[in-house]
Amino acid sequence: MQVPKPADRLRFGPAGVPHRAKGKDIIQALKIVKELGLDAMELEFVRGIWLKPEKAQIVRRVAEELDIWLTAHAPYYINLAAKEEAKIEKSIRYIVESARVLHLAGGWSVVFHPGWYMKRSPSLVYEKVKQALSRVIEILKQEGIDVWIRPETMELKSRFGNLDEVIRLSQELDMVLPCIDFAHLRYREGWNSKEHFRYILEKIENELGRFALDNMHIHISGIKLDKRGTHLNLNESDLRWREILEVLKEFNVKGVVISESPNLEEDGMMMRDYWLKINKITA
Ligand SMILES: [Zn+2]
Description:
By secondary structure, this protein is an alpha/beta fold. It has one domain (10-278): Alpha-Beta Barrel (TIM Barrel). It has helices at residues 26-35, 53-66, 85-104, 122-142, 163-172, 182-189, 194-208, 210-213, 241-250, 265-278, and strands at residues 10-14, 40-44, 69-73, 109-112, 115-116, 148-151, 159-160, 179-181, 216-220, 222-223, 231-232, 255-259. The structure holds zinc ion. Zinc ion (ZN) binds at residues 73, 111, 113, 152.
């Protein structure tokens, strides 16, 4: 099996087009990401897969020239454990189509929200999610699409996607690795200290191998402890993001960190700056 290119370092970028590029073309947005000194960007397909194949090939060329790594966030409507078969089929299609267009754009990793328990047992829901996800992988393999497929750790206890579940899917299916959303884990499990952050990374290393730490897809933002886990800017929240970065350094993690804060690129740059500082790299 072909695997995506190995990550060369830890990269930082915004979840979607930076605010200062809003209303501009995706190509302009990539140039702005570059000007800000960021080196990754997530294509937000959360409300629909807007990037067309012809354009994706142009995106690929520009992103390669600018050395920006692309990830994608598949649509929010996905539920691989839906009770209706038609909804599962649609969910499979959303992930496959996100992966196809990201692959055309030369991208690296697709993240998605796996689904909901809907008052059923976690083990039953696990089997449903795994079954559907294995069909996604089968299609992508047939098409020769080598991007990582990443179930995300989710904030709400009513949603499938605790750390154990996303790790187990990654053990049992090819092409699958977790997307670790530290804000969601802070909300779901209360994990907000260095000990907790080390626990997460140790578990990934022990259960998935060093390879997984060398190729991480990470989401970081502030988060409010309200009913739905509203995202906040890092400086308005209690998330110990500096300590997250310090632990990422301890474990020599590589891959992509996406800022999902409302201010997008601002927190992306703030994290990048701190990362360079603790690694003593002068820009
Ligand atoms: Zn997400």
